[in-house]
Amino acid sequence: MRFHGHGTLDQLYTLRRVLEGSWEFAQPVHMCFVDLEKAFDRVSLVVFCGECSTNDIVLLASSNQDFQHVLGQFAAKCEAAGMRISTSKSEAMASLTGKW
Questions:
Q1: What is the pLDDT of residues 4-29, one digit of tens each?
Q2: Alpha carbon distance 64, 10 (integer Å)
Q3: How many helices (H) and strands (E) would you count in the chain?
Q4: How far apart are CA 85 and CA 17, in angstroms?
Q5: Is 87 buried (19+), middle (13-18) or exposed (0-12) by CB count in 10 A?
Q6: pTM, two decimal places
Q7: pLDDT tens-digit profile of 51-96?
Q8: Which string of DSSP letters, residue by residue, matches 53-93?
Q9: For the chain, which residues make up each domain, given as ranges?
């Protein structure tokens, strides 16, 4: 997730470290790269995680069940804030064995 004052490189570094850790310990990572419909350059997401602005969101979970739970909660909060997840532009994937 993009927090105010941090750029794309910080986000990529964090995601890379999460994936490296999952591969090192042979743990699965379920990911969803979320695109919000009609999200302009900056969308206030105070409802979700405190003060941050973003239009690029990555949801992470260690199991499919947790992933479904996190995605469901996120979608509900989006709806409550008047936003919707663009299913045509969002992508989900899993790294189950440390390889894609």
A1: 555 677 778 888 999 899 888 888 99
A2: 26
A3: 3, 5
A4: 26
A5: exposed
A6: 0.69
A7: 455 667 889 999 999 999 999 999 998 888 888 888 898 999 988 7
A8: EES-EEEEESSHHHHHHHHHHHHHHHHHTT--B-TTT-EEE
A9: 8-95
